Amino acid sequence: MIYIAMQLCRIIFYIYNKELIGEIAQDEIWPLFKGAILFDNASIVYSLALFMVITCLPVGERIWNSRWYRITTFVTYIIPVAVMLAINLGDAVYFHYTQKRFTADEIFFANNDNTTQLMFQFMAENWYLVLIFIALIAAIVYGYRLGFRARDIAAMPERDNTERGIAAWFKGRIIGRIALFGFVRMAIFALMVLYGVYAIRGGLTRMTRPITLSNSMLYTVSPNKANLILSNPFCIVRTMSHHIVVPHFFDEDEIDAIYTPSHYPEDMERSELFGCCKGYNVVLFILESFSAEHSAYLMPDEHKGNGYTPNLDRLMQQGFVLDRCYANGLTSIAAPPAIWSSIPSYESAFMLMAESVAECRPMPRILADNGYHTAFFCGSEHGSMGFGAYAHIAGIEELYSMETYEERHGDDDFDGAWGVWDEPFIDYMGEEISDFKEPFFASIFTLSSHHPFNVPESAKRELPKGTTLNHQPIAYTDRAIGRFMEKYKNEEWFKRTLFVFVADHVSSERMASRTYAVPGCFHIVGFMYTPDGALPAQHYEHIASQVDIMPTVLGLLGNEEPYFAIGRDILNEPHREPFTLIRSGYGYVALMDDFVMDFSGTNRLGAYRYDDHGHRHDISSGVNVGRADSLAKATLQQYYTHVSERDYFPKRKRK
């Protein structure tokens, strides 16, 4: 009955907000319904966790039928359900004004003197919703009373204290009934736990994680329709620990002069490389755990021989190499927003924030609107890590996963942990994109170089084991890329393609001592390559990071559309000095070309040279630490201002 009530709330939500959400096509109904059930599962478990535990307690009929036990179970059931339905119905009106679902933010904002008055005013203006709420609660109470009268299939025997009863108590049939009672109760409790885990995680495999608001985008490509899928209290619980505080360091009229995320191609100081890849396909590899230290080309002093990325090293010799490329986070979920959308993760992973579900113009969406076919490949399950959901947010149209691979090639290539081995899956991407209409944008997230660091048996015999657990998996993924490049190099699409390679973050297994300290613990592989030499081979020796990928690629493609990006076009915006701000532990680190600045979020803590891995010698007096401090503060203020407002568009230029 609760599931039915939740769907009725959703229908009312749509009726109220049809103009904002848009028309729903017939082929969209089933995906939206599946997504809605997924989030309702979690909402119900969050709401009724206490009730579920109480009703599974091993109590006999005497306690079960007692007045106090019935009152307790009823209260732990009906109050959470009433709150859940009230918020979902209230959301129908609330969304119309804010265009976001009710989250924990509203709890913080509700602590006002006029909150009660506003609630009564809301109820008076929407009295029919109040009547619907009363009707739903009445129906659920009726259903609850019917359910409570059900007989226990394995009741606990009640003890008879008479002499005859005491004698009977020890007979086998009584003991058997007690054993049956215990077994049934434990089985029911186990099923409840299993249901709870499934509901909260969104699945039972090791590749799923607790679902977040962005997972709603797996069932629709429209952020507005994603709000139709979501429900409460899921949105509240998943945002309880997330409360955005926008820092205010500068007035609005001065902050843009220090730093702005608005980019206007018409004002760029265009280099000779602007538009050199106009109309080219884009194939973007997000490489799992490819630290710079794995490459003998990037860190020759750490290797005796070829290192563990010989194929990537050969490509780098012919490509545009970011010698000092840094990840904007230490987890995989921070990478897609940073690379595709030029939005980093700071206190919270952006992909997990409610604010990530909003209209935006990331690189894939800009390209899609300019005639590009867009696709994302990841060898794990369809909903794993929320990557596919965010891909839809970013404007990627097609998702290719372990399921789509196995439909064509069977399930023999499962690695036993995460998904399909990189070698067959990267080749599968080549098969698919060879049939794409040009131009196309295809991005792939590799996975074999992730813990538990396994490789196929044949690779164990053929590849160097190395000195750390991840060296062989890194070599395996590198070999997979090398074989992909060799196999498809004669395809027509290959010759007109800009290849981008960038790691998601550094590896958990490290070799060089400098990679244990800031900023070495963020130093990753990053470079671009065109087979026809349109992008000439050269080294970029200034600071760069993942958020610079989107602006720079758009510049190479000759994009003329203004866009929002935290990073910079490293080739065509020389007025933006090399700089990046990275969340590190409980603070931040600001990277300038010639020094690193530790930043608390409000104050600078010291400046250090790159080779001062322990940050022992503060050189603040000898460098322009004031500029770094201003850039760090302006970046945080701009970031949280735009995120809090869900505004991922460039400002209109003043005339």
General description of the model:
This protein is α/β, with parallel strands linked by helices and 655 residues long. The protein is 43% helix and 11% strand. It has an eight-stranded mixed sheet with strand order 5-4-6-2-7-8-3-9, sandwiched between helices. It has a four-stranded antiparallel sheet with strand order 11-12-13-14, with helices on one face. Helix 1 (2-16) runs parallel beside helix 5. The radius of gyration is 29 Å and the shape is globular. 44% of the residues are buried.
- Give the overall average pLDDT: 89
Count of helical stretches: 24
Helix content: 40-55%
Secondary-structure-derived class: alpha/beta
How many extended strands?
14
Strand content: 5-15%
Measured distance between first and last alpha carbons: 58 Å
- Radius of gyration over alpha carbons? 29 Å
Poorly predicted sequence stretches spanning 5 or more consecutive residues = none
Q: Biggest sheet: strands side by side, in what order?
A: 5-4-6-2-7-8-3-9
Shape: globular
| Largest beta-sheet details | 8 strands, mixed
